[in-house]
Write a structure and sequence with these properties.
Blueprint lengths: L14 H10 L3 E6 L2 E8 L2 E8 L8 H11 L3 H7 L3
Antiparallel strand pairs: 1-2, 2-3
Length: 85
């Protein structure tokens, strides 16, 4: 089992969709280098740094989706739920 992700259905989303959801939830674009967008969110004294690959609207691999969720400080349920709104 990988951090509780195996028991739930992950949404199939593109890098662009992930960036849009993170921006709506307090993240800001720090920089972009090539096809990778680097975002940051500071909550109290803790900072979350997230790197999202944006490759011409291709869907993200589930392992990449899981990695982004961990980097962003969300639980699997919270992060998946953000895409259902």
């Amino acid at each position: 089992m990988l951090d509780g992700f195996d028991s739930m259905k992950l949404p199939v989303v593109s890098g662009k969709e992930v960036v849009a959801v993170l921006l709506k939830n307090g993240f800001e674009v720090k920089r972009q280098k090539g096809s990778h967008v680097h975002l940051i969110n500071t909550v109290g004294e803790q900072s979350f740094h997230v790197t999202v690959p944006v490759h011409s609207n291709k869907d993200l691999n589930p392992f990449v989706f899981r990695s982004i969720a961990r980097q962003a400080g969300f639980t699997p349920e919270e992060f998946s739920e953000l895409f259902r709104k």
